[in-house]
Amino acid sequence: MAGHIQDRWYKEEKGPDGKPRKVRTDRYGTGMRYRARYVAPDGTEKSKSFPDKQKRLADQWLTNIEADMARGQYIDPRAARITFREYTERWIAALTTDLTSRAAVEGRLRLHALPYLGSRPIGSFQPEHIRDWNRRLEEAVASPQYRRLIFDAVSSVLNAAVDDRLLASNPCRVRSVKAPRPAPTRVRPWSVEQVFGVRAGLPDRYQAMVDLGAGCGLRQGEIFGLAVDNIGDLGWLYVRQQVKKVRGTLVFAPPKRGKLRDVPLDPEVSAALRQHMERFPPVEVTLPWLTPTGPKVTHRLVFTSGIGAAIWSQGFNDQSWKPALASAGIIPIPKKGERYAAAREHGMHALRHFYASVLLDAGESIKALSLYLGHSDPGFTLRVYTHLMPSSETRTRKAISAMYRSAGHAHDGPKTDDGPETAQAA
């Protein structure tokens, strides 16, 4: 970079003796005296002006610019003046995630970040600004889980600004800024009685949904989107699509994160589905694919509403699921004129947790469970369900006992809570 400092009050001319001398320009005494100029990596000229007697500051500023360029940390001062709101709009428009996830992220930023941070130039962010906003967020949003989602969205925007060389570093990631930390929670699977209690409380046309959730681990949208041709003849269920709401319209879409999968289909679950379809024949339903303006796709859905249409989750949850929870004693029955209590932890996802607990108790591997649940990372499955895995002591006792029995050397002594009591050789 060829940078230099221009003195706009004086210019250099040759005197009568042929030697250079400084003479005043027409700008002498007005405006800023010094202009530091350089050529940016994109080939454009940049500059900054400084007042009289501040040439040292101009030199220092230019030196810092040169050092940043040499380290690959140069930030265009003019580009960095774009506001957080303007940059966020561009960032959201460029997101490659599905429309539902994009809408959720956009909503968090519009409601809880842009009103506080929107007018600040993206290049001016410092940790103190995030700390102040974080405190306001704590006052405005009660749920630490939701606060963390909002915080992560802001951090993602600022990460992109760093990548685009508009910000030197992400202030959300410094040690003095504490990201919201949700209290650790453990999945508490329902009992068998609760599962079948909820099943009994559902309208007849929806009862087999419980068999799919508890017996195959499907998500709610995957159950709503199950088609006849997804049910195999050889003991497999093919999870290929879901029904979801995008911008107020129901659409068919791939399963979450595009994880198509095959799940073992138990004979009992298969029988429940067969009986359901005999009583409530599948219906051809046509919906757009992926987006409200996507191509039309038709599937013979196993589960539909009473009028033969795809099922809306909100209506199902309020009108069918929550009454079933109440009838099973999982949530209270509301008083007359009141609504059912919020029951986020007892949504249809609870059936997936039950499915996971049954498989782990039976000795299924985390890798297989992760595959059947459609998780992208077995490590995530392990973190969520590790406390449900049989203890190593229990597995060890069962393994040794099985070895003795298979060898015909099982002892007939009394059993204890710690495992089989073995005789000791004299």
Summarize the structure.
Helix 7 packs across helix 11 (313-327) and helix 8 packs across helix 12 (349-361). The chain has 426 residues and is α+β, with helices and mostly antiparallel strands.
Record keyword descriptors for this entry.
Tyrosine-type recombinase/integrase; DNA polymerase, domain 1; DNA integration; 426 residues; three-stranded antiparallel sheet; two-stranded antiparallel ribbon; disordered C terminus; hpI Integrase, Chain A; alpha+beta; 41% helix; Integrase_SAM-like_N
What is the overall pLDDT average? Answer: 88
Uncertain runs: 413-426
Radius of gyration: 33 Å
What is the CATH first-level class name of the largest domain? Mainly Alpha
User: What helical percentage do the residues reach?
Assistant: 40-55%
The N- and C-terminal alpha carbons lie at a distance of 90 Å
Class from helix and strand fractions? alpha+beta
**Helical element count?**
15
When the domains are counted, the total is: 3
CATH topology of the largest domain: hpI Integrase, Chain A
CATH architecture of the largest domain: Orthogonal Bundle
What proportion of the residues form beta strands (DSSP E)? 5-15%
* Helix-strand string: EEEEEHHHHHHHHHEEEEHEEHHHHHEE
Strand line-up in the sheet with most strands: 1-4-5
Shape: elongated
Tell me the number of strands: 13
Biggest beta sheet summary: 3 strands, antiparallel
